[in-house]
Amino acid sequence: METNLKNKVAVVTGAGGVICSEMAKSLAAMGVKTALIDINAEAVEKLAIEIEKKYNIASIGVAASVLDKESLKNAKEIINNKLGSIDYLINGAGGNSPLATAGVDQMVDSDLDNLDETFFGMKMEGFDKVFDLNFKGTILPTMVFSMDMIEKKEGSIVNISSMNSYRPLTRIAAYSAAKAAVNNFTQWLSVHFSKMGVRVNAIAPGFLLTNQNRFLLTDEKTGEPTARGVKIINNTPMERYGTPEELQGTLLYLLSDWSAFVTGVVIPVDGGFSAYSGV
Ligand code: NAD
User: Fold this and answer.
1) In whole angstroms, what is the distance from residue 235 CA to residue 28 CA?
2) Can you tell me which atom of ligand 1 is nearest the CA of 65?
3) How many CA atoms lie within 13 A of 227 on its CB side?
4) Which amino acid residue places its CA nearest to atom 17 of ligand 1?
């Protein structure tokens, strides 16, 4: 069965990272032209060359920040000139910060002597950083890149949320709240755009072992899983971390016309984590 993906133009933010570089490759494998956006210019330029060579389909790396509207506007001009009008947007740039991460799961009496590790030690600078990157970093690219879709009354936007958006994980207060905001915004925008032919959905990946969470899930020195890592595996019915490749089917489904009546949903891809009560 054919989809309408072939020769469409997709913008992928955070494409220099673990998850979105794989997403870009799977789009290219389906015949989608990709514009790879990242602050890490070298990573996306290298990836674009790799994609063109492997999949024989146009791909460009464009340096821009999802927090800088001017740089996104410049990127759009380059994309329109080189690849054409934009059909899809994957808002993948995101991440956590140690500055907004508590050192303990639950505060207990003995923490009164060391508040730094609790909620009271968290830095507002960290909250700002995490909210900016995950929430504003989804809004701004959408403002810039969705205009082409609105003009042609056709397009699909996929935001990358997280498992912690439904129920917060311990320690990462800012990241959980920022991803909850992404879910809320996904629903809001899906309604706002629903008569304009543009669908807006999100994927909530479960636990993958990547750069952003390695410091929480594996011991830096020994490489062994931390107590938190063990807890995650024990609460994931499939008893393993996911891989970036395992997000691809959901991404292609949400972008393609196979999901033409689907908008405003956040789909978990989590090995059963969100379904499991722990008993
Ligand atoms: P990653 O750190 O490997 O990639 C993130 C990319 O975003 C990097 O290439 C980075 O340079 C880029 N970036 C950072 N700030 C930017 C900015 N201002 N403008 C443009 N690009 C910027 O992270 P990842 O694990 O591949 O995560 C991708 C997405 O998936 C994120 O939104 C993350 O929150 C989400 N996610 C990850 C996991 C996981 O387990 N890794 C789970 C759920 C959700």
Assistant:
1) 34
2) 19
3) 4
4) 65
List of E strands, 57-125: 59-63, 88-91
Domains of the chain: 9-206+243-270 (3.40.50.720), 213-241 (no CATH)
Phi/psi of residue 264, each to 5°?
A: 80, 15
**Contacts for 262 with CB less than 8 Å, ≥ 6 apart:** 199, 201, 254
- Tell me the C-alpha to C-alpha distance, in Å, between residue 10 and each of 39, 155, 158, 252: 18, 10, 11, 11
Which pLDDT belongs to residue 79?
98
User: Taking a C-beta distance cutoff of 8 angstroms, is the pair 92, 66 a contact?
Assistant: no
In 3-100 the beta strands, taken as DSSP E runs, fall at 9-13, 33-38, 59-63, 88-91
Tens of pLDDT, residue by residue over 156-210, are 999 999 999 999 999 999 999 999 999 999 999 999 999 999 999 999 999 998 7
Please tell me the pTM assigned to this model: 0.96
- Amino acid identity of 52? E
| pLDDT digits 0-9 by tens, 35-74 | 999 999 999 999 999 999 999 999 999 999 999 999 999 9
Compute the Cα dihedral for 18, 23, 29, 33 and give only its sign: negative
State the amino acid at position 203 in one-letter form: I
How close is the Cα of 53 to the center of ligand 1, in Å? Answer: 25
| Set 55, 88, 166, 175: catalytic member | 175
pLDDT, mean over the chain: 95
Structural tokens at position 253: 């489904």
Contacts of 118 (CB under 8 A, 6+ apart): 102, 103, 104, 107, 111
Compute the distance from residue 160 Cα to the ligand 1 centre, in Å.
9
- Per-residue CA distances from 215 to 103, 114, 205, 241, 273 (Å): 12, 21, 18, 15, 21
For range 198-227, the mean pLDDT: 86
